[in-house]
Protein: Neurofibromin
Amino acid sequence: MGKSNSKHLRRGLSLDQMPATVLYDEKSFVDFVTDVFAQEVELNDSMQTLFRGNCAASRLMSHCFRTFGSKYLKQLLEPHIPTPAIETATPASTTTGATTTTTITSTAANNDTAATTTTDIATNISYEIDSTKLEEDGDIDLNQKNLLKLTKQILDSILSSANDFPPQLNLMCICLRNVLCKKYPNSDTYLKAVGTVIFLRFINPAIVAPYESGIVDKQPPPKITRGLMLVSKILQNIANNVEFSKEEHMLPFNDFVRTQFEPMRKWVIQISSERTQINI
Structure:
């Protein structure tokens, strides 16, 4: 089953055209994914070139992330991504004689308690830490603290979410870990590879583009978008188990990055280990 379907996938067959049992029957899913991943690992001599481009393994992985991971990502990330308040129109009715006039007024405009909501404040926070892009009155030290706080919030949610990790993706990570383990017996090597792939192809794309990924219903403002991009860079380095070295404005975060290597390693072990019972 696995090898037959993987041949079709390599020839360009859409995953949507695959028999449903391939993705929704546990044994078929494991056989299929293992075969596709094994071929990808066999064809690549370097860890750095794994799952790059539009290879069969990358397409399979993206399909699984999209099909089985969307709800998980929304629950994980939505609480941490401020978006502009959406004004809602409410009808205000006035009666003059037998005539009733309905006037549409903005809820936000009628709120006398505060001109600026908590969400408005959050969306105005700056995370810019690159001096070449800093606003004229910007404060790099303050922005570094803002960025570190946002990064910690998102990372804490990720590291505490292992039990909520979708069972299909758990199986996929187990297959990936087992395949990599055979070629790279060193545990640090294959665990790092699993973490790198999960953040590079699954979590970070949703962080960088939360509106396009369906995480939030409204496009975040530029300041938030910039902050999320920087958060993704920090998280990717943690997943890759490497410190910053080339980008000077990222160097102050190396102390934090180092402290998260081990928690990240434990999380990767959790999401790529067998559970007591998996129902897909």
Summary: Strands lie at 89-96, 99-106. The longest strand covers residues 89-96.
